[in-house]
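Record 1 of the preview.
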Amino acid sequence: MIGYFGDIVFQTSDKKILTFTDFKRTASASFSEHDRIGKKSRLEFNGPENQEVTFKMKILAGHGVKPWNMLHKLIVACEKGEVRTLVIGTHKVGSGNYVITKLGAQYEHVWNAGELVGVSIDVTLKEYK
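->
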């Protein structure tokens, strides 16, 4: 097991390949800026912002994962605002709780009768506290 996002397990085996690429984690902080006459402005730390994670998934039917089912599962999680745990290896990422804020899907291979056999999915997660 590489990790998981809720019930979606990232793994490679002789029967199933479900991985990600271009995993990017962003942390940031919030500041207020106060103007001062004749001086440089002063920053005031307000606190950390929720972390963001982006990655890509390429789902191929020949690798033991049904592209249409996986895409549907991710869309439902996004549209319902489901909070899921994100773990890579044995480590929670940030607080560990994330929601999907954005999905993009590129239908790469569609066969007869609209059978989706290959899809690339861009996933954007935001930490949920």
